[in-house]
Amino acid sequence: MEENKSAGQLLNEKLTYKSKNIWENSNEDEKKLAFQFCEGYKQFLDRAKTEREFTSEAVRKAEENGFISIDSLELEAKLKPGAKVYQVNRNKSIILGVIGRSGLETGVNIVGAHIDSPRVDLKQNPIYEDTGMVLLKTHYYGGIKKYQWVTIPLAMHGVIVKTAGEIVDVKIGEDESDPVFTITDLLPHLAQDQMQKKMMDAITGEGLNILTGSIPSEDDKVKERVKFNILKILNERYKITEEDFISAELEIVPAFKAKDVGIDRSFVGAYGQDDRVCSYGALDAILQVNNVEKTAVCYLSDKEEVGSMGNTGAQSAFLENFLAKLMYIGNKKYNDIMLRSCLSKSKMLSADVNSGVDPNYEGVQDKRNASFMGKGLVLQKYTGSRGKVGGSEANAEFIAELRKIFNANNIIWQTGEIGKVDLGGGGTIAQFLANIGVEVIDCGVAVLSMHSPFEITSKIDIYIMNKAYKVFYQEMK
Q1: Could you give the residue range(s) of every CATH 2.30.250.10 domain in the chain?
Q2: Which DSSP state fits 182?
């Protein structure tokens, strides 16, 4: 008890910093709310396994909560404080905004995350027949351990765009009655040479071929009868030909659903939690924002796992264009200096995950500066690798502001970095927003088995993260 502590103990508690286990510092009501929040999160994960699906679900939820598309507004329109708008970029990224009481020239509060995840993509000309079987050629996307993607059930998600402009939606492997796909592996009896190789070489990129069928067509005069039969089935179901794969975006993802992990159900296990855990938290938070001093912006981008390049990635002008349009609608005397002023006064949480300490692999992290499961939101001052190269570093003044508002609102947080110096590292979208003048820090949850087909997060961390993003939208000055 507090009254039994010595003066030295009390002073020591005041002077030292120690992260807290949220489970130990939460009441039963909060724990129930965390479990409830994660039920919705798991359902969302099952519906949104690709960036296109996430964007579609985000639009649906936004419109249910009173958001309107900025593209539907006339330039002569007026946006009053409290107005809710969104904009979609090529169906693969989205920005949502709630207009604040102060003008945009005073800056905006941004929570930005990415909605793409490591996966396997089909090549442009994927279908081939070999030894009486049909397989699909692939090219992996992002940083995967290739051996993790063999011998698991896989699903196909995406779109095929025909020359007339018709978009054909594809989703195979998610319904209980659906077939699934898989990538085969060599049996251990014949794998002596394979098992002598490094893990990164045992399964090759060109070896990630998707098993797709084996029944030949009854027409014995057709060459490659199994391939012909597969093409025939696809044509009957989707009205497509082999050439249509050239204008397709088809992603191969794990076919299993998000699940509770652990006897106590304290974890969520699912594909794509890097970074849909933070994306979902940021999206849910802004849907609940109604009255803010500074305009609140939720920026959900694509292509982070391959460097954020392209017109849907964080290096694009999407965010700047969105803010410029908002500013023009609010002030017909808009000029570029106004946008630059807005960006330089804006603050952002780069909502991305960090590597949690795994007791099976403790040697890769400095435990004094690592993030732990169940200890709350992770404030990651800098990213990059081997000398902070290729990353972003937050300014001390901004971190102090965050500490103040999080402490005042009982947001349990911790600090962390991705691993020991010289072992590796990684970057996020933070650097690209910092490059255009925004004050930014990485701020997400800890994850185990990052970039694997089945990533692990803590339910209590997810709940606290969502609370933190709401506080940031509403209270950051």
Answers
A1: 119-254
A2: B
Give the count of beta carbons closer than 10 Å to the beta carbon of residue 398.
16
d(CA 89, CA 143): 24
Tokens of 276: 């849909």
Q: Could you say which of 1.10.3720.10, 3.90.1150.10, 3.30.720.210, 3.40.630.10 is the CATH number of the domain covering 17-117+271-475? A: 3.40.630.10
Fold of 119-254: Aminopeptidase i, Domain 2 (2.30.250)
pLDDT digits (tens, 9 = 90+) for 426-454: 889 999 999 999 999 999 999 999 999 99
The pLDDT of 235-246, averaged and rounded, is 95
**Angle 459-475/396-408 helices, nearest 10 degrees?**
110
Largest CA distance in the chain: 92
Secondary structure (3-state) at 14: helix
Q: Tell me the pLDDT tens digit for each residue of 364-422.
A: 988 889 999 999 999 999 988 888 888 889 999 999 999 999 999 999 999 998 888 88
Contacts of 309-313 with CB under 8 Å at 24 or more apart are: 311/89, 311/90, 312/51, 312/89, 312/90, 312/92, 312/93, 313/93
Return d(Cα 109, Cα 114) in angstroms, integer: 17
Residue located via tokens 């159900």: 265
